[in-house]
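Weekly modeling sync, notes
Attendees: S.R. (lead), two postdocs, one rotation student

Agenda item 3: backlog of single-chain predictions. S.R. asked that every request posted to the team notebook include the full sequence so nobody has to chase files. The rotation student volunteered to paste the first one in as an example of the format we agreed on. Action items at the bottom.

Example entry:
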Amino acid sequence: MEKIGLGNRIRVARRDRGLTSDALAEMCHINSTYLRQIEGGTKIPSLPLFISLCNALRVSPDSLLRDELTDNEVCRIREIQTLWETASPQSRELALSMIRAALEHTNS
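Predicted structure, as returned to the notebook:
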């Protein structure tokens, strides 16, 4: 799968919410030129600005960063969550029992 990139994901999220770059920039207290540079990939937002963008766009940070991050704990948790949500009640009970047994074994 081709990497989309942080800036493009921000642009897509902005457009999906019907916001102009001027409107989003104003919500984040930056100028629209800087936002366009971020969306174009020539600038990287600071952490406080990134959080502001996530809040303004109502998206999770990992949704914007998913192609930027390597396999990490958040990805693992989401994988487990997906498996859990699609499992039958019997499979859930079995998985929970297996996890408890594994944790008890490693904590002994």
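Discussion: group reviewed the output briefly. The first helix runs from residue 6 to 16.
Action items: rotation student to repeat for the remaining queue; S.R. to check formatting next week.
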